[in-house]
TrEMBL record:
SUPFAM superfamilies to which the protein is assigned, alphabetical: Precorrin-8X methylmutase CbiC/CobH (SSF63965)
Family stated for the protein in its record: Belongs to the CobH/CbiC family.
Superkingdom in the source lineage: Bacteria
Name of protein: Precorrin-8X methylmutase
UniProt keyword annotation of Disulfide bond present: no
InterPro entries: Cbl_synth_CobH/CbiC, CobH/CbiC_sf
Length: 223
């Protein structure tokens, strides 16, 4: 049973329900090819969605988990495509590591530029994050907007940014699967993706919470 203090549920009853849920996921998920740490991310995504198809749909760059844990431990910023991700993340868990979250999708200047350039708010939001120097060494979390993910990949390929980790899980029918496929072709930048059309902000939150729990567990072992 997990001995984490900060990244666990706050009450004994809540912790027991969560542990029982994870036990059910483990017993019903069937075989998988994930490492132990990768499985902690996948099982939490399954737990958040009650969808066992994510056993296999979630894919990891070989360095993804290690890079994510290192970024969290040094308090790297998380830049999300939408506010829902920032709202969904546990503030006490983030504060424990000194991690701040950012989103710019609703900013007036972002909206104005999107209209002026006939692009999307998601694209302009990522450009603003880059201008604020939040993407270099940060965790980029995309759960809604494929155009945000495509813009991130463009900036990486153009040598504008070197993020610590890109979590690419946009949901939808237009460019969602394609944007994740393009991200997963990158070799130098760690990534976590959900193949196909499935995804969403809730699943990004689940993945980050799993990384936070792993980071706390590693820190506890080190102490």
């Amino acid at each position: 049973m997990n001995s984490n203090i900060v990244t666990e549920q706050l009450t004994d009853a809540g912790r027991q329900i969560e542990h029982d849920s994870f036990a059910i996921v483990d017993s019903e998920a069937g075989p998988h090819r994930y490492t132990e740490q990768q499985w902690q991310v996948v099982r939490r995504i399954i737990h958040a969605s009650a969808d066992f198809e994510f056993n296999g749909l979630v894919r990891f760059h070989a360095d993804a988990v290690a890079a994510g844990l290192q970024a969290i431990r040094r308090g790297a910023p998380i830049v999300a495509d939408v506010e829902m991700i920032c709202v969904g993340l546990s503030k006490p868990r983030l504060d424990y590591f000194g991690v701040a979250t950012h989103h710019f999708i609703a900013d007036a200047d972002v909206i104005a530029l999107a209209k002026a350039e006939n692009s999307t708010r998601a694209v302009q939001a990522m450009r603003k994050a880059q201008q604020l120097q939040l993407l270099d060494g940060g965790i980029i979390a995309v759960g809604n907007a494929p155009t945000a993910l495509l813009e991130v990949v463009r900036m990486i390929n153009d040598g504008q940014i070197i993020p610590a980790l890109v979590i690419g899980m946009p949901v939808g029918f237009v460019s969602a699967a394609e944007s994740k496929a393009v991200l997963s072709e990158l070799n130098e930048i760690p990534w976590i993706v959900i193949d196909g059309r499935k995804g969403g902000s809730t699943l990004v939150v689940a993945a980050i919470h799993a990384l936070l729990a792993l980071a706390e567990a590693e820190q506890s072992q080190a102490d």
